[in-house]
Amino acid sequence: MSNGRIIGDVILDLQNISLRFGGVNALTDVSFDVREHEIRAIIGPNGAGKSSMLNVINGVYHPQEGAIVYRGKKRHDMDTHEAAKAGFARTFQNIALFKGMSVLDNLMTGRNLKMKSNFLLQALRWGPAQREELEHREKVEEVIDFLEIEHIRKTPVGRLPYGLQKRVELGRALAMEPSLLLLDEPMAGMNVEEKQDMCRFVLDVNDQFGMTIVLIEHDMGVVMDISDRVVVLDYGKKIADGTPDEVRSDPDVIAAYLGTQH
Amino acid sequence: MSDNVRRPSLSTFPRLLMHHAQVRPNHPATREKSMGIWQTWTWFQVSDEVRAMASGLAELGFKRGDNLAIIGDNRPRLYWAMCAAQCLGGVPVPMYQDAVAGEMVFVLQDAGIKFAIVEDQEQVDKLLEIMGQCPDLQHILYDDPRGMRHYNQPFLHGLDEVQEMGRIHNRNHSDFLDGEISQGKPEDVAVMLYTSGTTGKPKGVCQTHAAFIAAAKSGCEFDKLVPEDNILSYLPMAWVGDHLFSFAQATYAGFTINCPESGDTVMTDMREIGPSYYFAPPRVFENLLTQVMIRMEDASAIKRNMFHFFMGVARRCGAEILDGKPVPATDKLLYALGDFLVYGPLRNVLGMSRIRVAYTAGAAIGPDLFRFYRSIGVNLKQLYGSTETCAAVCLQPDGQIKFDTVGPPAPGVEVKISDNGEVLVRGEVMLKEYYKRPEDTADAVDADGYFRTGDAGFFDEDGHLKIIDRAKDVGKLANGAMYAPNYIENKLKFFSYIKEAVAFGADKDEVCTFINIDMGAVGNWAERRNIAYSGYTDLAQKEEVCGLIRDCVEQANAELAHDAMLSASQVHRFLILHKELDPDDDELTRTRKVRRGFIEQKYGVLIEALYTGKTSQFIETEVKFEDGRKGKVSADLRILEAKTFPSQAAKKAA
After folding, report:
1. What is d(CA B67, CA B85) in angstroms, rounded to the nearest whole number?
2. Least CA distance to B37: which residue of chain A?
3. CB-based contact B469:B486 (threshold 8 Å)
4. Do A207 and B35 touch (CB under 8 A)?
5. Do B147 and A3 touch (CB under 8 A)?
6. Does ipTM top 0.90?
7. pTM
């Protein structure tokens, strides 16, 4: 497919990140960067440190060593609220939605950071708060339209099948209008059709809004198809970094995935 | 409204539109649910949009006599596009949006399409795929720009840009469009609708402004439709029924059409709008009823008992009360109570609280199904017509509803039965011609100007028309008894467990059928009985399911035994097919009519097995998925015997 988007400069640079939990080295001296408008995949076998890496990026974990440079600003680690303010949105490996709330309400929570009126006004839904809510609702409706989930707008999330819940979670992240989207195994546990749908949405998000995406994925077919560059982790170390084709033929990667001959 | 007719100036659809824009500029004309709320366009705004679109099309080179393909779901701008083409003296050709690319080639070539207005990227992709085979196609316009950013072909245009071009054009040449509209004549072709092609290739039916306005007028006056009415427009735009109701009648009477948000939200949207006028083929009514019944089974015992009690009352007297016939006072009282407790809330759930008139057409409707809706107070009626007659041949008048007829001829339409039992129609609503097919036109219209409908039927004692089957399908069994496959199939399809049936028997000793189970109803039935199954093919061959279907078939046989003419057509053997019949596999038409000849060929081995008394037969079939990929389904099908009954008709006569 001809693609009109232009991959820009490095916006996020992770430098020599090391993360330890007690005696366990979750990440050891990992460096890689993310460029604007690209889809960047992190792959690796189970326990390779992929989710830890995402958690470092959005500030859930604080690495013992290394630095994170985001849009020219260098810091030792991120804080979760800092990350959210900077426009990092993420989805989770195990869906983390409000199960009892409707799809619409779940998406509205994605707009929370952008609400300016104070708590009291919001509770009363009065004056500026009401105007504001209408604006946010419009944004949320755009997301609903984009993800084709009109028919479940008012359905409580807990009643939806898994694949749709994943889509709603992506929707909540999109409702934030993020500058960087972190997806933790967006296609895990899906059937082929659901995976295809999800791939299309991820590509569309990247293509239409120029959104930068970092994703973790197990399905190699998916990763190789949709990502621009791939970083491979194994036992907390980076073993390869490059385009899908480069990574695919890398002997270390083959060894990590298929084992080596002894 | 009635002044529209007498004034010759309102003899085409564009003129009618401009008339409404003048007379009721602020009355809602079109609504669409978008961004979660209903957006409204008034008649004035619609006329403005149509003018912009028409002039934009003219800028691109669309000329008088050109055909404009319209492909997509029911979107306001696609409806407006019809009128825009008509403004310029062009002919809109709505096409089925779910057709795969290959199927579209024929119509695009046949109609010599140069311009196409389509809904979205999906349809654009289909057209791009077949563009090589359609050399005439010059411009493709799309409604929804989503995903179209990287398409830079010069012949692709967003409707927004085209309308903007048109607006500029209208500012510079303010009298251009009115001039074009005034050149339109009532005898010009207003729309070309393709027949579904039950037999062979589809034919383009050319209908004039005069014909569709006559059909709209007769319907609107018959049911007293006023601008305050609302209709939900959700059926394929290429279907004559939708064109009559959502375009012709709406533009004639000036009422409001409402486009649902998407195909999946029709139920919700219907509840929100609460239409006063409603049109659906029988299968939609059937699906709704099945859903209600399934949910009632899951309801608490009190609710369930209340439901069944009051449904009993409704069955006894509901339809009579709706018809205004006298009923005992106790029944009246019970019905009023039931209306408060059950029927009213039920109508509300179905989105039918405000319905004044509802029609069903396109296929025969089961008497139980029909009676159910009437008994809960929904004024459901039947109409009869075809693409060639603007879907307006017979209508059931309020208060004279029969379950097995389609009513007397509509005002201004002559109907007679030919010597061989075929229904013939003459009137203003008749087609002008089949596009570029003079021989077919000559075949279809006899010397006296009657159109041969191809349906076999007769008038009953009250002058109501009763349709039996397609005339060419009506045949004889080997013993000479009359055989009408459709009649038998409908009897079977009236059971909620049976979705589709195909009967065989012409020139044979006995009638045998193929059956498709209804996945929803049978699946639910199986779950209740803890019958495990992996999918359609598996479920269809379960011992218990076979028993269930056999009961249905035998019940149908018992009913057939009472029929004077068709008691010999009882089903002796049947099998349940391993896959659902599907338009994508060419087994059904896009309007879901069985393509008998094709099925006979494709499943010849199964038919043979039915007639040679085997007990099972292996079959492997190729299936096409929606995205064009192919797969295979195979199964060992059981062949089942059904009990038949001695003819009761003779006894009844005695």
Report:
1. 8
2. A141
3. yes
4. no
5. no
6. no
7. 0.82
